[in-house]
Amino acid sequence: MNFKMTMTAACALMASAFALPVQADEIKVTIVNGHPPVFLWVKHLTDTFIPTVNAALEGTDHSIVWTEAYGGTLASVGGELEAIEDGLAEIGAVPTVFEPTALPLQNVTYYTPFGSPDPQIVIDAVDQLHNDVPGMIESWEKYNAEYLGGGFALDNYVMMTNFPVASIDDLQGHKVGAPGAAVNWLEGTGAVGVAGNLTTYYNDIQTGVFDGTIVFPTAAAPAKLQEVAPYILVTDFGAQYAGSLVANKDWYDEQPAEVQEALRKGAAAYTTAYIAEQNARVEAAMKQMEEGGAKVTKLSPEERAKWAAVLPQIADTWAKNADGQGLPGSDVLSAYIDLLKK
Predict the structure, then answer these.
(1) 242 near 110, Cβ under 8 Å?
(2) pLDDT tens digits for 54-74?
């Protein structure tokens, strides 16, 4: 082959190479939560968060290949923060309710029971706290986590038991399961609080580990808790902030701006869709449980006031403990109460 032919072939190869479409940068992401997809905060990772992020990345040079790790396949309930910190997962829906020691500030709502029953008000207030109080963001960063915004709040908590309850006097000596700091809501009532979570409540009540649980309707119905705890007492404990979407910070900081923005768009869409479906499901959940044999009663205003009165100073004690750790506990408590009032 002569020199001219060689150059012609080389030019042709270069031209064809430049004509090839540019391949998108594929980013592998594992997303984690310890609960199974039957629960809304997991369902909307698949239904809302991931599709929104993918849509936001269309037209960019980046795409994400997702691995969804739910229901204990990568981390058990309460192990999500550690999975994010260690880099086992890039994104997680971290249930802060199970991190009262690691993330005390994020648990402020669980130390202020009988608050707003509206999950939207609660999630908006806590998201605002993340914007206004530096210690909130720093709490996540301590565990190599990047707060993506929003998150999930749980609907107005009720009590479900295998015995009738009309007064706190009826709780005397009974064991009641509760998540995280919600165990504190039983102090002074005569009941014995036992730490638990939704993945074990049914079996624990069925086998006599405890006699009832503090739970929210939109999770109680799919878990069929009315089968083992048919007495539902509407206590109006209030809606509770329960967790947020976060990313491994080291990984997040390395991502292009388009990817970071897409993740935040996904988190915002996730919260909106989650709250909307949650609100639509509350009434249906209560109806489903009643049709399944549940007997629903409402705690009287007098008994509710009596319950609140017997509780120790949960919020003040929590705030002072946080202050003692060098955290802005009192600032967070004061700001949260002000936001609820507004």
Answers:
(1) no
(2) 999 999 999 999 999 999 999
Cα dist from 45 to 16, 33, 37, 207, 244, whole Å: 41, 9, 9, 33, 11
Amino acid at residue number 116? S
Bridge partners of residue 94, in order along the sequence = 244
Residues 282-314 have pLDDT tens digits of 999 999 999 999 999 999 999 999 999 999 999
What's the mean per-residue pLDDT of the chain? Answer: 92
| Tokens 């309930």 sit on residue | 77
Give the C-alpha separation, 333 to 98, whole Å: 19
Sign of CA dihedral 161, 162, 164, 168: negative
Using CA of residue 226, residue 228, residue 231, residue 235, what is the dihedral sign? negative
What DSSP string describes 113-124? Answer: -S--S-HHHHHH
3-state secondary structure of 149: coil
The candidate with the shortest Cα–Cα distance to 130, out of 223, 244, 23, is 244
At 4, the pLDDT band (50, 70, 90 cuts) reads: very low
Rounded distance between C-alpha atoms, residue 264 and residue 6, angstroms: 52
Q: CA–CA separation, 68 vs 34, rounded Å?
A: 11
Burial 185-214 (b: 16+ CB within 10 A, else e): bbeebebebbebbbbebbebbeeeebbbbb
